[in-house]
Write a structure and sequence with these properties.
Strand content: 35-45%
CATH topology of the largest domain: Elongation Factor Tu (Ef-tu), domain 3
Strand order of the largest sheet: 1-2-5-4-3-6
Radius of gyration: 18 Å
Order of helices and strands: EEEEEHEEEHEEEHEH
Largest sheet: 6 strands, antiparallel, barrel
Number of helices: 4
Structural class: alpha+beta
CATH class of the largest domain: Mainly Beta
Helix content: 10-25%
Shape: globular
Distance between the termini: 37 Å
Number of strands: 12
Length: 207
Amino acid sequence: MFTGIVTDVGRVAKVTDGNDGRRLRIATSYDPAGIDLGASITVDGICLTVTEKGAEATLGNWFDVFAARETLGVTEVGKWHEGRRVNLERSLKIGDELGGHIVSGHIDGMAEIVDKQETSEQITFTFETAPEIARFVAKKGSVALNGTSLTVNSVEGNRFSVHLIPYTVQVTTWGDYGVGDRVNIEVDPMARYAARLFETLSVTQKD
């Protein structure tokens, strides 16, 4: 489990494609000594498993993750290139502060940026996503975009907006994005549970 609070901005340092998926080496400020092999880290919101780790004089600290074909099918990891900056978050430990909202790292799909408004160091983004995902996005609710827990400002059809304060812009990769870019979206699991409960109650009442 994660919170959607980004704790490091990493960099894709190496990409290796294979028939089974894609291997990524991520440069990070995380101390590799404190990362267990098999640990989960979200990379732009995608929960991936650490397969190798280390430190080099030129690269610095790094860890390797593997993106399987299923992950490539629902995200744009297949298009990532060396040098890309990525939002990172390590998994929750007992006693950690839950500063955002519960995030699983299981991506529901993609959201496209259709508008970007900058005011000083603040940014308001408007996104469009598929109807089957948009139905779970609610005004003042939570959504995880590229691993960042954000509050929904407005919703209109399949579009919704979020506002990023200067601190969020500074400690994440959001300043890199513009209109036309696509990002990973994970809806609030509570919205899914509520929708499922409503569907179940509706069926029960009809019976």
